Amino acid sequence: MKKILLLLCLIPVLSQAQQVQWVAKVIKSSSDLGGKQYSSRRVVGRPDAFPQGGDSPNAWAPKNANDGHDFIEVEFAQAQSVKQIAIFENLNSGCLVKVMAGTGDGKYKEVFRNKINLTNWKAKSQEFTRGYYFNRKRRKVVEAPQVNVNPGIEYAVLDEPLQNIKALRVVFNFTKTAGDKQIDAIGISDSEQPILPQINTSKSLENLAQPEVLYTSKTSINADFVTPSKLYVNIADEEDRTKIYSFDLANGALSNLTALPTSINKNPNYNYLATIIGGKYVVGGAPFKKATSETGYQIFSENNGEFNLEKPVQVVAYSSLDDASNLSANADGSIIVMAVESDISQGGMDLYFAKVKEDGSYSLLQNLGKAVNSANDEYSPFLSKDGKTLFFASNGFSSHGYDDLYFTQRLDDTWKNWSEPINLGPKINSAASETSMVYDDENEYLYFTTYKDDAYQLCRVKLPKSLLQVN
């Protein structure tokens, strides 16, 4: 047996020559928090808490991690030759004890035992610090305490390939390192070449121009909506109360930052422009009663620069576990997409759609599905003008930092089938949090917000429609 290698340099590269499989099914585990988040089922599939590492509801967090006797049994879709097993530990790695392999008949044989010297491993470890986290209620990035996370990938590289392997029993001693423990994914390969995490993006997105910074603020700023002549944002004051503002947009230049009148900035604490439908302004942030059709969104009409409240946006049996939500719509308002945390969410905030009814209200919210929604948060949806491309923010997929921006495309007219989300790449996404975006279909610009250099930044980058394609 070869000595295990712990890899902490997480470069998102994956050899195409390898036959790699990720867990397809969890047979059982020694302990499980259960529920939608942190359960052993979160080991299924390729890594989604890597390469960023750190705490994630998309990873298995054992319930009894301090008793020193944890294991997980997993199965793969097909039997194959195995030369390497990779275990992705996104919190305080270094706890692998042994790996047992089987053909899927319930019997296992030990094929690897970890003989790593823990003292030497600690000398090689590096401290991972996430400097910021995302508060979705106010869409504001704030400082978080430093945490020694120490993510890593432990590799069991076998002396000789094993044939017809379909199942593994992986044994851990989670008392070997301090702190919480989480396992993101387990992979097998027929090659010695290390299995590495891969962010789902494209080379063309990696080659975008460097975004330009249009505006900076010491308080939070979020991109809300864009028209041919205006870019709408919401900006917080020092007491975190937000108002809707607009920039004039002409010949690619922004000017004249102006607060919209109090007739539309009516809510005492939080106002943002969700969308404009046929000249009607849909504004979020209103108080609402739970267990009713109220959503906290209101429709305004404009008359000579002043705004008149017409009616609330109502959704049948609307349910939200939090006051926070986001909303977008297609061009004619026949479909809305909302980010809501509810009893039927995959985990945290999920993306849902609803269809307009004859009376102007909307039908029951329907989940966009597991292809788009993770066990963590998906939020800030923005539908493109054609109603087929959906941009959103998430902290539930492999990313460059924590909150990254993604897009997905609708595959049919049911609104339930979407492509696998594609990360918008390292020029747009960074180790910081990117939290809101709008897309100018006419001029092919993406406007988005981030937090860097101790300031909130409104940025813009040229993003041709031709790059917004899925396989």
Question: What is this structure, in a nutshell?
Answer:
The protein has 471 residues and is mainly beta. Helix content is 2%, strand content 44%.
Question: Would you give an account of this structure?
Answer:
The chain has 471 residues and is an all-beta fold. 2% of the residues lie in helices and 44% in strands. It is built from 2 helices and 30 strands. It has helices spanning 118-124, 203-206, and strands at 5-7, 20-22, 25-29, 70-91, 96-102, 109-113, 132-135, 140-143, 152-172, 182-189, 212-217, 221-226, 230-236, 242-250, 253-259, 272-277, 280-284, 294-303, 306-314, 326-329, 335-340, 350-355, 366-367, 378-383, 389-394, 404-409, 422-423, 434-440, 445-452, 455-462. Residues 1-15, 117-139 and 142-147 have low confidence and may be disordered.
Report helical residue fraction: under 10%
Low-confidence stretches: 1-15, 117-139, 142-147
How many helices? 2
Oligomer: single chain
**Rg over C-alpha atoms, rounded to the nearest angstrom:** 24 Å
Main beta-sheet strand count, sense and barrel state: 8 strands, antiparallel
Q: Could you say which overall geometry the principal axes of the C-alpha atoms support?
A: elongated
Strands, count: 30
Structural class: mainly beta
> What is the terminal separation in angstroms?
40 Å
**Which range does the strand content fall in?**
35-45%
Mean pLDDT: 88
